Amino acid sequence: MGATQLIRIHTILAAALVVLAALSACQTRPKGTVVIRADNDRLIRAKALAEEAQSAQKAGRTDQAIDLYRQSLEQSQELFAVWNNLGMLLMEKGENMDAAEMFKAAADLAPTDERPYYNVGLIYDRAQYPAKALEFYEKALARNPKSLPALRGAIKAGKVLTLTDEPALERCRTGLLIEKDPSWLRLMQSEQFRIEAAQDSSPRLDIGRPRDRRQPEGGM
């Protein structure tokens, strides 16, 4: 084997050792460090964009606010307010389907916050789909049974659907305890009386003592 070949072999081995050392160093580095730092950077940027969007929203610059909220979502999808506020702006522009998706994403991020589901209910309410509106008002009330906006929406939808079940009556009773607006108080009282009257007039099963249908036995 010539000297030139030996030099080449030594060069290759030395390069291989350098690569192995680099790989070993990578393996000892905590996994995800760079990714976590990048995620944090994106989250910080998302928050900054969200603040800019909120300022634009308060100033009435709707299109700019929408654009900034969308930029924020490109950086991070973890901010509840971004999804919810973007949904509100899209709803104002009449982009109801997109708005509903924003609210549903917000609802997933905040499992105890009733507002996103109420907002979806409001979309269906305004589109005159009372049954679908009631579905989401009920989801909002499941999170907060004393949410006055959701109670109002559900009672109004119940009136349109002429509901007479116990949940509809219970919503009226709850609403009457916390409502202050005279017009809504009148609606709730009217609905309570209507439902109670319907329940009182409905036929009831006789749950008293069962009738003895056995035939008498003869005897000698």
Question: How does this structure look, described?
Answer:
Helix 5 runs antiparallel to helix 6 (115-126) and helix 9 (166-178) runs antiparallel to helix 10. The protein is elongated. The longest helix has 26 residues, at 3-28. The protein is an all-alpha fold and 220 residues long. Helices cover 75% and strands 0% of the residues. The protein has a domain at 41-93. The termini are far apart.
Draw up the topology in text:
Blueprint: H1 3-28, H2 33-58, H3 62-75, H4 80-92, H5 96-109, H6 115-126, H7 130-143, H8 148-160, H9 166-178, H10 182-201
Helix pairs in contact: 2-3, 3-4, 4-5, 4-6, 5-6, 6-7, 6-8, 7-8, 8-9, 8-10, 9-10
Notable characteristics:
220 residues, mainly alpha, disordered C terminus
Name the average pLDDT: 83
Uncertain residue ranges:
9-38, 205-220
Strand content: under 5%
Please tally the β strands and state the result. 0
Shape: elongated
Rg measurement, Å: 32 Å
What structural category arises from helix and sheet content? mainly alpha
As a percent range, the share of helical residues equals over 70%
Oligomeric description of these chains? single chain
Tally the helices. 10
Amino-to-carboxy terminus distance: 130 Å
H/E element string?
HHHHHHHHHH
* Major pleated sheet: none
